[in-house]
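Support case: protoporphyrin IX containing FE complex. Customer-provided input:
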Amino acid sequence: MRTTRDPARRLPPGPQGHWLLGNLPERRSDPLGLFLRGRERYGDVVRYPMGPFLMHQISHPDDVKRVLVDNAQNYQKTALMQRLRPVLGEGLLLSEGGFWRRQRRLAQPAFHKERLAGMARDITGLVEDALPHWDALAARGEPFDLSAELMGLVLAITGRVLFGADLSGAAREVARAVTTVLEEINRQVLAVVPLPAALPLPGHVRLRRAIRVLDRIVFGIIDARHQSEHPSADLLDLLMEARDADTGEGMSDRQLRDEVMTLVLAGHETTANALGWTFHLLGQHPEAEARLVTELSRVLGERTPTLRELPTLGYTSRVLDESMRLYPPAWLISRVALADDVLGGYPLPAGTIVVFLPYVIHRHPAFWERPEVFDPDRFLPERAATRPRFAWLPFGGGQRMCVGSGLALLQGQLVLAMLARRYHFQPVPGHPVEPQALVTLRPRHGLRVVATRRAAPR
Ligand code: HEM
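Agent response - structure generated as follows:
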């Protein structure tokens, strides 16, 4: 007979929480605090009862590697993530198995390196077009929400670069719908008893309405392409021209809708948040901002940056990496184990939810010195080389790693370079800035700033 000291029977430590709800109340009220404290108090594998579910948090990069790479076939996207299905359908983020593999193979070439040069030109062109608007914001000298402005800019870039679509007029509508979607999905994920979506509850009605708004925009993109006579050689063309090797059939409009919706939503919100947090951090660290502006003036002067120049903007790239360390837009990644597994020496049962949090791992004191300090030089190659691969994972990893990471970094660096060399964004004193952990990590009350134009570099 096994004794309780048998390692095979050992349960990972963790907070019990409420007798019925487990840790759900804290998961709702203070998710970042719950998981940060969980790792601090209990270590690299923590067990949380969460209402009807059992959740395990892992925080050691080796265990993350096992889930994402070495034993990836044993892990799938969770039922919690599947709550996004009414919005994202069978798009890349949620699909599984052979279907996912085929769709990924179709989409991936659109993000290849040789495509990025063309995308870089489109991105810088769109930022230049937007500069008169940003100049006007600066000239007015009044506070505005930098977060909302960046969301609009990145949405316009995403629409143009991936789908040849002009989404600049849709920014407000999309932002409102996306906020509703994120809030409602978050509420559903945290419900003790999930209620059927067909019930006409106010939240369900709001969600359906928001999805209708997004559907109209996405089907608009697809219809416009159906009617267009010019080949565009972008992601949308790749998806539309794809034919099944066996049946010769193309993708249905429904599947196209799911892929386009996934790419629009997964792509613009995350990238805009990364940029927003970056400017927030620069606002708090004038010495880093001064170093960034010096680099931009030295390398670029007033020239428009190109893809080829980006490797020479080392500090710019490190600022972005460090910002995504402290505020990873995808703050939590989750999987469900299909069969029993062992992580961190603890046996975990099939069916358990495994979560790992870039937000927590990026602050793990075993891998990050003085983790709360903003220090872009942590990403100097010689210092980065001392850390395990999965100590920094803003884009996840393994076969399900973010398909748009190259585009996100390209966009992030170009927009950061072009805006930071031209404007200083002064945070409005007293405006509270706190991260809100929904599906993505966003500034709960936006980022109120006043912009000023910098003098042109001499
Ligand atoms: C800073 C910006 C971004 C961050 C932090 C980010 C983060 C992530 C992460 C962590 C994952 C993996 C999720 C998991 O393993 O469960 C992911 C997947 C994905 N991302 Fe991104 N992302 C960003 C930008 C983009 C962009 C620009 C696009 C496309 C335009 C995009 C499209 C996707 C898609 C389609 C997936 C699912 C891939 C698959 O499962 O095959 N993301 N992203």
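The first strand starts at residue 45 and ends at 50.

Case will auto-close in a few days if no follow-up is received.
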